[in-house]
DNA sequence: GTTCGCAACGAACATTGTTCGTCGCGAACA
DNA sequence: TGTTCGCGACGAACAATGTTCGTTGCGAAC
């Protein structure tokens, strides 16, 4: 405390009126930080700093970083609205729900990583699982298969959310690095293409004939477009309906 | 160097004949460590220690930890044998390839995490991608859809490998903690059940009617069994065949 | 026989998650 | 009203991480 103004800062009366700590405040601050600096860069110290306190203070409301992030994951899911009867039959509603999940999770950087390390069990997660299972049953999926189907859909949601997050991150990085010039479309596609398509594109036909032959279809455009996302979801749902046999 | 035997250890002639460093040696040591102590516990220092050297020496052959793990991932994939004509038609071969991938990756703890952070482009990965695409084309999947289908399968493989790794880890932890008594089946299922099934099981029917109704199907047995894995893969392939329409 | 490139490595740095012990406010209690 | 006590807040510290810097010394090339 060599700061000459410390007696002002330390005095609760003159302190800049910081909000009282609480679990919700910690989770909200962490979620905001995820959006701002990215999932990996959210450290206990940074969260504490955002709340104008020290890292040790967080451990009153949070067990450790993992549990913090699990809470953030659930908090993010709170923004997902469940489709209603006006949104169509069970299939249309399920597709809408899944795309909302991907958009929401993918919009918070790599927060979906939480669902890989541990199986989330927060209230919002359960709310969405409940709705998913209900829609699946409405679609005539066998009771015994419904949990598996929900699991499969969840795998898809998590993977797609991470893919979306990576795409948005690359996009931000490029548009920021391009000095704010024209950018956006031209530079983005070129930068991303030179990354992966160079690998697939310059692969000799002698050793990898099929990749070589499918080269035009393997361009980044195919990976980037959200046509691919809709296609994959369609495949899974069609598969659920076609696989009725042996549950 | 206060060690009185340092002049012996430092002398290359009397040194315990350590193998010369190389990229392959580093990757192999890291893979062995993944199996021994787990993916997360593989640090640069531990890898260096296994090779009887310092952490800084690794950076000659490896850019950083991420790239190291990418190399380990590819190295693990080298053990996967491609199904041959004797293994049946394209579908049987594809199912065999996928299950081998899951078993191999899942057998090396969380190494599959690598495929989530970055899209792997190692030679072994490309070898398997080539085979996957070939099998899909043999199955009549549209050329434009093949990359998407391979992507979908890869998502499934990665998620399932991580699930398998988690299951094996829990199993090891329980059998080790059980003092080497009877264990294995009884204790395992009880310990794992009390974790997740308690959440699903004690959920009130009023707020989550479908989860409550499906409770018997949501037991850990369903999640653990590899019937679930086969079912999911069947759904995906059936979906690929049923979704012919608009590629 | 000299020189030069580069693998090897010791030491250090900045950061990370987490724990310990203390401080002090505010509510419960006498 | 005066005392006590629980517990949130927090400063400081610890062990461990990934990575970099500068030096050293061997071996090959000229």
UniProtKB/TrEMBL annotation, chains A, B:
Coiled-coil residue spans: none
Matching InterPro entries: Homeodomain-like_sf, HTH-type_TetR-like_transc_reg, HTH_TetR, Repressor_TetR_C, Tet_transcr_reg_TetR-rel_C_sf
DNA-binding feature ranges: 43-62
Keyword field: DNA-binding, Transcription, Transcription regulation
Start and end residues of each HTH tetR-type domain: 20-80
Source organism, top-level taxon: Bacteria
Protein's name according to its UniProt entry: TetR family transcriptional regulator
Taxonomic source organism: Winogradskya humida
Phylogenetic classification of the source organism: Bacteria, Bacillati, Actinomycetota, Actinomycetes, Micromonosporales
